[in-house]
Amino acid sequence: MSHQPEVVMIGLGYIGLPTAALIASNKVHVHGVDINQKVVDTINAGKIHIVEPSLDEAVASAVKAGYLKASTQAVEASNYLIVVPTPFKDKNEPDISFVEAATKGVIPFLKKGDLYIIESTSPVGTTEKMMQLIYTERPELKGEIFIAYCPERVLPGNVMHELVHNDRVIGGVDEASTEKALAFYSNYVKGNLHATNARTAEMCKLVENSSRDVQIAFANELSLICDKAGINVWKLIELANKHPRVTILQPGCGVGGHCIAVDPYFITADFPLESQIIGKAREINNYKSFWCAEKVKTAKLDFQLKHGRKPSIALMGLAFKPNIDDLRESPAKYIAQKVLQDANDEEYYIVEPNIKDHKVFKLTDYISAFAKADIVVYLVAHKEFNTLPENSGKLILDFAGVNN
After folding, report:
1. N or C: which end of the chain has fewer CB within 10 A?
2. SS3 assignment, position 130
3. How many separate domains does the chain show?
4. Number of H helices and number of E strands within the chain?
5. Active site residue: 69, 180, 205, 300, which one?
6. Is 259 a catalytic residue?
7. Domain of residue 142, residue span
8. 251 and 377 in one domain?
9. Which of 259, 288, 292, 333 is catalytic?
C-alpha cells in the first residue's frame, strides 16, 4: 500500500540522496525527485549512483522498508526540500534556474501549512525570490505557508555522519517559518540548530567557504614569495605558527572541490565592488595552479638542456585533496592536463592511488612511476607518497608538502 509522503526531496545528488535516506531511516515516507530517469531507476532498485560510505546500506534498507521511493515528478506532501545544483552561467555568474524549475515543480502541490526549504547553495536573496514566485502563482498561499533557507555543510566521505551531528544554520523568511524549519530538522539532526533569517543563512553558507578560500590564498601567496626568496615555505609556516595567535594553513597547487573553489563567486558576482579580498583570493588560488604547471615546463626544459635528453615525469595525484577519490574542480587534474597539452615526446606517468582507472589519463602505480621518473611532481599529499624516498637524486617538485 502506498502512503502519501511527508517529505518531497527535489534533487538526489551528493546531498539530496543522503538527506532523503537519513529522513527515511527515521521511518518517515520520502518521495525523491530527480530529472535523470537512470538515477530514479537506480534508487528504486535500492542501489546508489554516487560514492559515499554507508549511503548504500541506508538507501537499500529505506527502499526495502518502503520509506523511500524516487520519481521524475513531485507529488503532494507537507514538506518540500530543494536540493538541486546551482551551476554557473558564464564565467562566475550563478545560475538559479534549477532552483526555479524545482520550485515551479512543487507550486501546484503546495497547500496551507506546508514547509518549503531551499538547501541548495544560492546567491543572497534567492529564498525571497522563490517566495515571490510562489505567491505570484498562488496568491492565496501568502502568509499561509512556511519558507526557509537551510544550507548543509558536510564533507564528502563523511556525509552520513555529518548530516546528523553538524550544527545547522536555519533562516526563515519570517519568524514562524524559522520555527517551523527548526522543528522539522530537530527530528533528524543531533547538532545544534541556529536560528536566523533567510538572507543571513544564505550569506553564511557562502562566507564559510570564502573564508577558507582567503586563508588558503594567503598560504599560496606565501609559497610564491618564498620560492622567489629561496625560503622553504613549509618550514616558514611551521615556525610562524609557533606564535600563539597565528594559524597559517598549508599551501597547495590551488583550490579544488565543488564548494571552496566555487562559492566565493556567488559573493563576487553580486557584490563586485565590496568583495576585494574574496575576489583576489580566487585569482591567487587559480593562478597557483597555472604557476605550478609553468614550473613543471621550466624544469622539463632545464633537464633537457643539462642532460641532452627528454626527462620522464611522474605527476603524483589527481584528487582535489589528500586521500580521497574525488576529482571535481581539482587543481591537480588541471595541472596534469596543462602539462600534457604541452607534451613533446617525454615519458609521463600519471598517478592517483585512490582510483582504479580514468577515462582520460592512463594511470601508473606510484612506486613504479617514482622509480621510472627523472622528475617527480607532487600535486597531492596522498599518504602513500610519504613512503617514497626523499633523497633519490631525482628532481622533486613538491607542491603539496609531501617531504616536509
Report:
1. N
2. helix
3. 2
4. 13, 12
5. 205
6. yes
7. 7-191
8. yes
9. 259
Same domain, 264 and 341: yes
Residues 6+ apart with CB under 8 A from 156: 14, 52, 257, 324, 326
Q: Please provide the distance, in angstroms rounded to a whole number, between the alpha carbons at the two ends of the chain.
A: 61
Residues 339, 336: Cα–Cα separation, whole Å: 5
CB 303 within 8 Å of CB 396: no
Checking if the pLDDT of 2 tops 70, the result is: no
H or E element in which residue 338 lies: helix 331-341
Q: Which residues contact 144 (CB under 8 A, 6 or more apart)?
A: 112, 113
Q: How far apart are CA 374 and CA 303, in angstroms?
A: 9
pTM of the shown model: 0.89
Per residue in 245-271, pLDDT (tens digit) is: 999 999 999 998 778 888 999 999 999
Q: Are 34 and 69 in contact (CB under 8 A)?
A: no
| Judgement on whether residues 265 and 391 belong to the same structural domain of the protein | yes
Strand, coil or helix: 311? coil
Q: What is the CATH number of the domain that holds 88?
A: 3.40.50.720
pLDDT band at 1 (very low <50, low <70, confident <90, very high): very low
| Active-site annotation holds for 383 | no
Q: Using one digit for the tens of pLDDT, what is the confidence trace for 108-163?
A: 999 999 999 999 999 999 999 999 999 999 999 999 999 999 999 888 788 999 99
Domain for residue 153, yes or no? yes
Instruction: Give the number of other CB atoms < 10 A from CB of residue 403.
Output: 16
